[in-house]
Amino acid sequence: MAKGAKRKTKPTEDSKPDSEPTATATATASSQENENQITKAPPKPKRVKASKPQSDPEYFEDKRNLEDLWVETFPVGTEWDQLDSLYDIKWNFSNLENAFEEGGLLSGKKVYLFGCTEPQLVMHKGENKVICIPVVVAVVSPFPPSDKIGINSVQREAEEIIPMKQMKMDWVPYIPLEDRDSQVERLKTEIFILRCTQRRSALKHLKLDRLKKYEYCLPYFYQPFKEDEFEQSTEVPIIYPVEPKPVFCEFDWELDELEEFTDKLIEAEELSADQKDAFKEFVKEKVREAKKANREAREARKKAIAEMSEEAKAAFDAMRFYKFYPVQSTDAPDVSSVKSPFINRYYGKAHEVL
Length: 354
Description:
The chain folds into two domains: 206 residues, no CATH class; 81 residues, Ubiquitin-like (UB roll) (Roll), CATH 3.10.20. Helix content is 27%, strand content 21%.
């Protein structure tokens, strides 16, 4: 080599250009990239909420303003164990409701309502059944028709006429549904219903005689201008207490001859021959009691009329009774064939049946 000529040297690692990385660096970078890919969890896919199927809006039928009027009116004389079955059927008393609408039979009038039930054999759900049919009686009157209840039955020897409050019953104002958020004392109502406050949960604590009285209750009414049918009656119910069983019969003091009447009972083996004289005396005493009661009733009626004001006389004369049965519907049996104008022994017959 000539003197002064430059000698070529082998390039070192550090002298290599930056644009060409070493194999080690490349491997290291690749390894770190793989680690990052392994340790870094992939992003979770967003959960898509399932859209709820759009259901049809629910529609609730608006309640009629007087829809529960018949339910709130206590069914006097109904056995307690029959009450639930009474409301199991969806009875429709729209005829009663419509009577209070403008132009209706009871519109603008002061009315007192009481309920009762009539067991009848009717067709229901394809078969004949004995069903307690609810009935509502409307009394159009400027004052309560009575504050008393009659208690009478075949099993009881004599009827009782007692104050309603002894049986926890009273006339109370009925508040229509649309007015129940208002202050009751400010409302002026013309509808009054017979209500019973006896709690059913307390029935088990009542004596049997007291409990049975509810079943024998009849709304009482005294019409001084009309002679009671029992004032005219000459029949006496007889319950003669004798062993092994009492003798039940009716004796008419105008049509029956006592000797012959008694002999027929003996022939029918309903009365023993050794009881003949005692039975005859028993019947005579009952006849005397009945005649005295009829006489006192006539005298009391005449006295009541004599002491009555002209206004009260006019009110009694204008008083009207309307008997409402449930109307025919798909949910209840048809009762049109069993309707009757008779209310009870005190009220007699309704002026109109609806």
